[in-house]
Amino acid sequence: GAVVSQHPSWVICKSGTSVKIECRSLDFQATTMFWYRQFPKQSLMLMATSNEGSKATYEQGVEKDKFLINHASLTLSTLTVTSAHPEDSSFYICSAQMGQNNGYTFGSGTRLTVV
Amino acid sequence: QQQVKQSPQSLIVQKGGISIINCAYENTAFDYFPWYQQFPGKGPALLIAIRPDVSEKKEGRFTISFNKSAKQFSLHIMDSQPGDSATYFCAASVNDYKLSFGAGTTVTVRA
After folding, report:
1. Per the CB < 8 Å rule, is A44 touching B89?
2. Which residue of A has its CA nearest to B38?
3. CB distance A43–B103 less than 8 Å?
4. Which residues are bridge partners to B87 per DSSP?
5. Which residues are CB-contacts of A61 (< 8 A; sequence separation ≥ 6)?
6. Which helix (H) or strand (E) element contains residue A64?
7. β-strand pairing of B62-67 with B86-92
8. Are A42 and B104 within 8 A, CB to CB?
9. Which residues of A touch B21 (CB under 8 A)?
């Protein structure tokens, strides 16, 4: 089945630094990748949608300059949290889609803690 | 504003019992309704999904019931096992694009 690898699984960083999270589709080409944020005991909130080779589309209220998304190839998308602050601490999850009618495969998530 | 309303927030069921989770939606353009299972510290995993041309779909112990006229769909977990203890999310999308998630239901199966 389709596999999405997300790294790192957890990261601790100092306030003011930047953190990059990678999302790779291992056995399929992902035309679209999605990035979500999930707070404890809450649902997944879509942050942005990215298509290979084009700029990401951000959801309302998500700062595009703070959460940089790059979808450089059909198998790799990255999310960079710039100048991270403690309020950015959360669980970030990516998902990838291999075209319409092919469902969505989620990564295992990244626990970000900003201290 | 959540486009998919999910209930209950949590439920406890005895081993061997039936867990039932309900979801309701307003957007009649939704055409894909998946259910995801999530364990703590992990990403969601697709459990089962249905499209509006079918009223019921069963895969093993998991069944989706879909009522298009009522704009509701539900997940039934038969013969619940302790390993089923997890958070379950319903979701919906239009043309297989962005998923709208329900708030989630934490299921605890007591041995």
Report:
1. yes
2. A108
3. yes
4. B38, B106
5. none
6. none
7. unpaired
8. yes
9. none
- pLDDT (tens, 9 = 90+) of chain B, 111 residues, equals 679 999 999 999 999 999 999 999 999 999 999 999 999 999 999 999 999 999 999 999 999 999 999 999 999 999 999 999 999 999 999 987 889 999 999 999 999
Q: What SS3 class is residue A9?
A: coil
Residue B63 contacts A where some CB pair is shorter than 8 Å: no
Are the beta carbons of A105 and B95 separated by less than 8 Å? no
Q: Tokens in use for A105? A: 């495969």
Closest Cβ–Cβ partner in A43, A100, A108 for B42: A108
Q: Which residues of A touch B43 (CB under 8 A)?
A: 4, 6, 93, 95, 106-109
SS3 (DSSP) at A20: strand
| HEC letters along chain B | CCCEEEECCEEEEECCCCEEEEEEECCCCCCEEEEEEECCCCCCEEEEEECCCCCEEEECCEEEEEECCCCEEEEEECCCCHHHCEEEEEEEECCCCCCEECCCEEEEEEC
Residue A52 has pLDDT above 90, yes or no: no
> Is the bond preceding B8 in cis, omega lying within 30 degrees of 0?
yes
Phi/psi for B83 (5° steps) reads -65, -10
Q: Which residue of B34, B42, B95 is in closest CB contact with A109? A: B42
pLDDT tens-digit series, residues A64-110: 999 999 988 889 999 999 999 999 999 999 999 877 667 789 999 99
